[in-house]
Model the fold of this input.
Amino acid sequence: GAVVSQHPSRVICKSGTSVKIECRSLDFQATTMFWYRQFPKQSLMLMATSNEGSKATYEQGVEKDKFLINHASLTLSTLTVTSAHPEDSSFYICSATGHAGLSLYEQYFGPGTRLTVT
Amino acid sequence: SQELEQSPQSLIVQEGKNLTINCTSSKTLYGLYWYKQKYGEGLIFLMMLQKGGEEKSHEKITAKLDEKKQQSSLHITASQPSHAGIYLCGADPEYGGATNKLIFGTGTLLAVQP
Done:
């Protein structure tokens, strides 16, 4: 149980285009989802926290107009990188927390999405 | 803001050897998590520690949180190639994990040579 999926696993896009990454909780309701990015050989950096039905809370230094987050349902959150540039190339990971018997302190991570902007 | 520093940054050990990874916080830890990550993949939850002096074990991995709750160690006994990966410590930045947010340590890359 407590599986989180991400789609796509890899995406290559041209500079200036937008790309959407989906994060789904497959067998539980995710009241809160988190989006992280990870550069090569570096740790995960929290980008934003999204709660179902409300606006995402962005960490300092993260452009909310560039990284659009939508958490429309208890099982789906999307991250849209708008007008992508090569410096946006990174590994994006989502995680989710929820109820239904799961520890509130435990986050379940998706497998990540490798974004390459050419 | 809270910062988590891990040491060593990278580690290469021979199969069968023991090893220890440390995670040091600039502030008191109210919840400390250990994760393992294969390169280019998601994170696998290992253990969570909350109380000062707490120690947990799972198979050949033991994690401890010191009494002052500012340092945690992860110890692997008789390492195997399957232990190779990136180990990350994570912590709640706020007391009680009210936000469920996690900040992560700098990471430790472990390689196990057969």
Remarks:
- The longest strand of chain A covers residues 30-38.
